[in-house]
Each structure stands twice: as structure tokens, then as C-alpha cells.
Amino acid sequence: MKKYAFFVIILVFITAITFAYSAKQKEVYVKGAVINMQEYVKFCDSTTEIKDLYVQKYEVTRAEFEEYLDFYGYNKLKEYSKDGGLFTYNGIMPYPECAAVLVTFYDACKYCNWRSQKEGLTPAYEIEDELPFAIKYFEWKQENGKWTYYVPKMPEIKLNEKANGYRLPTINEYFYLLLGGAKGIKEKWWEGIDITKYEAFKVNSTAVAKVGSLKANPLGIYDLFSNAPEWIWADTKIFDRDDNINYAKYAIGFSPKNVDLTSFDILLYFSNKTKLSSISPIHRGFIGMRMVRNAK
Question: DSSP class of residue 75?
């Protein structure tokens, strides 16, 4: 019996090491900088330090997110809109290697913690209470003979900035990465690029592509031009209804219209864009995620 238990422990240890090594093969080290990102992207915040980071090369895939769904028993999501039409689970994400979408802000933070624990890292988020899983969070309910628009309370989520676990990038980190880090910004790598080599824009399509299908930016990061819109960590204090806990978080994502996609100036586009679209954190929109973690 002791011999069996010993082999089980060894097997679990080897599995954990293998998983951690495999995960780290999918990330790149990005040197931080002291930089005023507002000089480049007007809606970045006033923070001037970008930390050294390990950044996931790819958005979290459907297959990876399904492991999370299976672990917590959230398999109802896999049955999402099986009645046909454009917005079906398999219609939006036709391949396991597609970017995961249909991710709430709550699930994005919880997924980061779950992955951190699997890899022996310190979870970055302190999540007060649970948000009961649902396919659709906003709905009308009848209470005491009256119909009430029901909005559940979003648990408070705090970031442990010193943790080495996975987290969502801040708005400044996201655009620092998109612009290619300090070296990319200095060299202005984006000038005159053919953006179609870095991002696919499919007309009249709701499906996201397989991650890493096109070219990476100079940092070796794929799909930053939003194969799927990606959650970021940013307080905007935009309230949904009168629920002061459900303040909206920004989701990064854009599909430029009426621009020449063969000669696209990233910096010009973002420096002239006044704001991002705010999206409620518990509305299950077509939003995905990418993880980062502190390198120090």
C-alpha cells in the first residue's frame, strides 16, 4: 500500500512538472519599462511603470477553458444555443484551438487562479464569495407577483499585485505589449504594416480563428489585434443598472472600418480613438482572455 501511494505521489509530481513546463513553453518574457503610455494611447492611465512580465503567446483556447468548465462542473455552457443560428457554442468556436469566448470577467479571474494553483503559483486574485454559474445572468424574474429585472451581485475581486500567479493585463500593459514593448515603440514597427498578416477580419462571421494562425508581433505574441476581444484589469466605474458592485471592466478589441488594411498605422488609430466600449462584467458576451504574470 505504501509503495502504491509513493508511485501515485511521484506520478502527480511528474504530471504537475510536465504541465507547468508545457504552459511555460506558451509564454514569452517581456522586459518592462518606465514609460508614459498616455503619450501613445490617450486612454491609458497615468501609471508610468510597466513590470517585467511573462505573457501568454496565445489567447486561452476553447480546449483550455473547457478543462476549467469540466473541473467546476460548468458543462451547461457547452450546450449554449444548440438550437441553431449564428450564436452557437460550436458556431462561435468551431475548433478546440479557437480562442475561448463566452467568458465572463468573473470566470476570467477565477480561471487565472485555477491555472495558477494547477502550476504551483500564488493566485493573483482574492475573490470574495461566489457568482453562481449561469448561461444568462440578466433575466426577468417574478417576485411577489411582480416581474423584476434580476442582476446578481458581482463578488468583490481584489488583485494581489505581489503574487506570481496568472492575471489579466492592465490597460497600459496591454497596449505596451501590442506596440511591441520598449523596443517596438522606439522602432515604430507598426508603421506601414499590412495588418492582414497579423489579424483576420472576416465579414459577416461570428467565429473566432485558431490561435496563432497569423503572424506574431515583434514580441512573439499572437492575436493582440483581437481575434477575440480580451478582458483586461481596469476599473472604469461604469455601473450596470443601480448595482454598484457590478462596475464594468474594459474589454480590448477592435475591428477597424473604412481603413486601408494593407497600410494600417496602429498608433495613429489608437491615439485618435477617444474611448473603448465598456462591457458589463457578468454579461456573457463574446469575450476571451490572455494571461500574464509578474516576472519578479
Answer: G
